[in-house]
Design a protein that fits this description.
The chain has two helices and seven strands, in the order βαββββββα. It is an alpha/beta fold and 98 residues long. The strands form two sheets. A four-stranded mixed sheet has the order 5-6-4-7. The model has no long low-confidence stretch (mean pLDDT 80).
């Protein structure tokens, strides 16, 4: 499975993220992450956000997941239109769409 992560070049540097992508495990499945600019996913139905706490960057915005209400966080420059959902819900949402 592939997923795109919206993260600016400046934020990647602040977090020590190198390269244009990485692989993580989510719900036991390897997922290839590719970092893309936030504006490039404006037309997507949802974006996956990190759980809160802990707050990863001090200026992150905290809000409830659009699906389950669990607290998540996202960057101030995140696209406005896509629904912001947690990692648990994105697994179900992508399975439904497949």
């Amino acid at each position: 499975m592939k997923a795109w992560v919206t993260m600016s070049t400046r934020d990647r540097a602040r977090l020590g993220v190198k390269g244009r992508g990485t692989t993580v495990r989510l719900a036991g499945e390897p997922i290839r992450l590719r970092f893309v600019p936030p504006a490039s996913v404006e037309d997507q139905p949802w974006i996956c956000c990190m759980a809160w706490p802990p707050l990863l960057l001090p200026d992150n915005i905290r809000a409830p997941c659009a699906t389950c209400g669990r607290m998540i966080q996202y960057r101030p420059d995140a696209p406005r239109r896509p629904l912001k959902v947690c990692a648990r819900c994105i697994v179900d949402l992508t399975a439904e769409k497949a």
